[in-house]
Write a structure and sequence with these properties.
The chain has helices at residues 3-14, 18-27, 35-49, 74-81, 92-118, 121-129, 139-182. By secondary structure, the chain is mostly helical. Helix 6 (121-129) crosses helix 7. The two termini are 38 Å apart.
């Protein structure tokens, strides 16, 4: 390690408050801070405090916290849902609730569409087989056409349900973030 670089790290960390250095020392986050930084912090804290405070177990990797609303970290979620920062025209918790439940509702609507369309399959078959009236060789082909048409219709209906609801979720999140950012809350 270059002595000049270590000296720069020392000078930079030495400007920080003791409490801040103690917090870094105790958190022992080896992902965010290098070994050299911890050596320098150890040196500074021994100079300032005389003894080193206890350290947590080393953090060697950061595990992403999974929350129900996918695009907001915990700090942003806290700010958004904080009553002191509450927006005037909507309730953030309701938007976050919609973000979770609209995709589920879309899937439920697709299943309902599939089930309700199954009841229409015989009617679709009768309509198609009416074009082949009197020709028994085409009866099998009428079923084949009916099933292919049925699958196409169900896929089209599913797409027309699922994607607009997914777009609505994205638009709601974007609008909420825009409103939140426009208020300049730190």
């Amino acid at each position: 390690m270059n002595d000049e670089l270590r000296k720069q790290i020392y000078n930079s960390l030495n400007l920080k408050e003791t409490d801040e250095l103690v917090e870094v020392w105790q958190s022992n986050d080896r992902v965010e801070w290098t070994e050299v930084a911890f050596d320098v912090i150890r040196e500074i804290l021994q100079e300032r405090l005389g003894e080193l405070p206890p350290q947590d177990e080393p953090v060697l990797e950061h595990v992403a916290v999974k929350n129900d609303s996918n695009d907001f970290d915990e700090e942003t979620l806290e700010k958004i849902t904080n009553e002191d920062n509450a927006p005037e025209f909507y309730k953030p918790r309701e938007v976050l609730w919609l973000e979770i439940w609209l995709p589920r509702a879309a899937i439920a609507a697709i299943v309902a569409t599939l089930i309700s369309s199954l009841f229409e399959l015989p009617s679709l078959h009768n309509t198609i087989s009416s074009y082949f009236m009197g020709n028994t060789e085409w009866a099998f082909m009428a079923w084949l056409f009916a099933i292919v048409t049925f699958v196409f219709i169900v896929i089209l209906q599913s797409l027309l349900i699922y994607f607009p609801l997914k777009a609505l979720v994205s638009i709601l999140k974007i609008l909420m973030q825009m409103e939140f950012n426009s208020r300049g809350i730190k």
